[in-house]
UniProtKB/TrEMBL annotation:
It comes from the Bacteria. Residues 4-66 form the Roadblock/LAMTOR2 domain. It comes from Streptomyces iranensis. This is Regulator of Ras-like GTPase activity (Roadblock/LC7/MglB family). Signal peptide: none annotated. InterPro entries: Mycobact_SerProt_Inhib_Rv3364c (IPR053141), Roadblock/LAMTOR2_dom (IPR004942).
Amino acid sequence: MARSQEVKKDEADTVAAAMSGIQSLSRTMAGFCGGPHMTWRQTLVEFDGGWVFLISAGEGAYLAVSSAPDVDMADITFRMQQLVGQLGKALSTPPRENSGIQA
């Protein structure tokens, strides 16, 4: 839906697809953390050069942030939750519908 100015569109599309996959894997792993009714809230991935935070931002939408390795993790998570709270439904994306067109 949106990206930082420094991120090119093709790169943003690639990252969005990767984040979708990570979110899907994270939701699938919820059962590993306590049962089938666990709700996914956030995924955090660490790399040599920093972190990627991924949180739910509404129906069908997620917010991802990359950061340097020395970031205040609690502050980033708090600010992400604030942003999602402020933008609310504007971040939701309705599910795609079948148009009936055969490919």
